[in-house]
Amino acid sequence: MEYTITFPGGLRVDAQYKDVTIHTDQTVKGGGEGSAPTPFMCFISSLGTCAGYYVLQFCRSRELPTDGIRLTQKMEVHPETHMITHVSIDIHVPPTFPAKYHAALVRAADQCTVKKHLEAPPSITVQTVAGA
């Protein structure tokens, strides 16, 4: 699995994987144009969107309507390091959603591959390759 990272101008940085390009930018306050999410926004939102995907698939596999279902993701940040110390995801369902599936929705969201990778993070190396 290989992504190619390029610099299309300004503070934009793109990541290409096969036929998909993920565009990022910095906020206007951060010196960018605010034309796309920041890399960190992409990273942290991948947790909630991945959990959402598993909730969606759970509902689809049981032909349950997803109207009115939404997830909210909240982060707690350490006041000195500004690093995220806790993430919580709430699955909001309408009152008509069958209560017998509430716990199963949580189990489905817990299958998120992003969450699993954060719980057992990979090692990361960075190097310069001359003549690329």
Give the structure's gist in a few sentences.
The protein has 132 residues and is of the alpha+beta class. It is 29% helix and 26% strand. The chain is elongated and about 60 Å long.
Write structural notes for this entry.
This protein is an alpha+beta fold. It folds into 2 domains: 1-37; 43-119, K homology (KH) domain (GMP Synthetase, Chain A, domain 3). It contains 3 helices and 5 strands, in the order E-E-E-H-E-E-H-H. It has helices at 39-61, 102-109, 113-119, and strands spanning 4-9, 12-17, 20-24, 70-77, 84-92. A 3-stranded antiparallel sheet has the order 1-2-3, with no helix packed on it. The model has no long low-confidence stretch (mean pLDDT 97). This is OsmC family protein. Pfam families: OsmC.
Q: Name the beta content range.
A: 25-35%
Rounded to the nearest angstrom, the radius of gyration is 18 Å
Stretches with pLDDT under 50, minimum 5 residues: none
What is the average per-residue confidence, as pLDDT, rounded to a whole number? 97
Strand order of the largest sheet: 1-2-3
Query: Any guess at the CATH architecture of the largest domain?
Result: 2-Layer Sandwich
Please describe the biggest sheet, giving its number of strands, its sense, and whether it closes into a barrel.
3 strands, antiparallel
SSE string: EEEHEEHH
Shape: elongated
Label the structural class.
alpha+beta
Protein name: OsmC family protein
InterPro entries: KH_dom-like_a/b, OsmC/Ohr_fam, OsmC/Ohrsf
Pfam family, one: OsmC
